[in-house]
Amino acid sequence: MEVFLVCQSCGAKSLLKDVGYRCGCGGLYGLSYPKKRVDFAKTAVSVERSLYKYIDALPFDAELTPWKGVSLGEGGTPLLQPEEDVFLKADYLMPTLSFKDRGASVLMTMAKALGVKEAVADSSGNAGTAVAAYGARAGILCHIFAAASTSPKKLEQIKAHGATLHLIEGTREDVARAAIEYTGERGLFYASHVFQPLFYEGTKTYAYEVFEQLSFSMPDIFFLPAGNGTLVLGVYLALTELFSWGYLEKMPQIFAVQAEGCAPIAVAFAAGEAGVNPVENTGTAAEGIAIAAPARGTDILRAVRATNGSFFTVSDAEIYDARAALARMGLYVETTSAASYAAYLQWRKREQAVGMRVVVPLCGAGLKG
């Protein structure tokens, strides 16, 4: 199978194996490859329970790609129903305890197929852990860049998988710059969950699973965290596919969630802007979505608007209250992960929610911080 990177700015098209993570014009890449319509009647009862039961709609040749040697069984997480028309997808029940395993599995499987031996990633914690774990599984040496202020439990996890950890003093943007510089100096593969469109091929399976779990239907609304937007963009990709394949008559709305202390995309949305300007991160406990200058902010805006969606911002107090409420249900999630549920609670207080089906992700385990 030929997989192409297509620049979203200038339209340049190159084989995946021939180019880096960003076009020479500075534009970001999308992905183009022949994909088959998913037969959900078959995948719903497949003996393969990982996300690779959807391999026909992934950028791989099923028999030639080494996914079986990289997969850790990610995917297939339960969809819980604490109340009528409200569903919580427990993606924290993944091998590395976060939804980032979806994207990391696909990305590192492709890296192995391309013969990559050494890779670099930057992260606020969960993506770095996932890349380190799947890199270890794939036999790829990983360098993970993270802020020195990252939750200690996440840093312990990264090191446990054998990755070389590079701690950077400064902002999340400083961490990304350091990783990109290190990548360029050494000519390494940049396993970025932001720049590599392969990552979204993994996170789109979140929506595939919801479609199966809701008896081949979709909710009215997805509440999704929006830092770098890996889940927003993955879900939107899946929705466009499902619509084009004739499974959907209309798009569910995407309600994207940011923390009050760092909400550049929400600000741009409210102002009607086409692009996103960087903001100052004034502080939030939701470190996983505290992205002051999101590289794919424009893409996230487009995805939300295309579904007639909206943005929600939540305070740290609302996040902590939501986390406590989830814990009382037996669901212990990390602080960042509670932000989406906090947004749902905020929406429910101010809207007539009767008859509206809602799906909220639980993205990371409570033991992470």
Succession of helices and strands: EEEHEEHEHEHEHEHHEHEHHEHHE
In the CATH classification, which architecture of the largest domain applies?
3-Layer(aba) Sandwich
Tally of helical segments: 12
Largest sheet: 6 strands, mixed
* CATH class designation of the largest domain: Alpha Beta
**Count of individual domains:** 2
Strand proportion = 15-25%
Kindly provide the radius of gyration, computed on alpha-carbon positions and rounded to a whole number of angstroms.
Answer: 19 Å
Identify low-pLDDT runs. none
**CATH fold annotation of the largest domain:** Rossmann fold
Q: What helical percentage do the residues reach?
A: 25-40%
Please tell me the overall pLDDT: 95
Structural class: alpha/beta
Task: Fill in the keyword field for this structure.
Rossmann fold; 13 strands; six-stranded mixed sheet; 369 residues; alpha/beta
Report on this model:
This protein has two domains: 79-98 and 198-368, Rossmann fold, CATH 3.40.50.1100; 101-190, Rossmann fold. The longest helix is centred in the middle third of the chain and has 15 residues, at 172-186. With 369 residues, the chain is α/β, with parallel strands linked by helices. It has helices at residues 40-43, 100-113, 126-138, 152-160, 172-186, 198-203, 205-213, 230-244, 264-270, 297-306, 316-328, 338-350, and strands at 4-7, 13-15, 29-32, 79-83, 86-89, 118-123, 141-147, 164-168, 189-190, 221-225, 253-259, 310-314, 358-361. The protein has twelve helices and 13 strands. Helix 8 (230-244) links the parallel strand 10 (221-225) and strand 11.
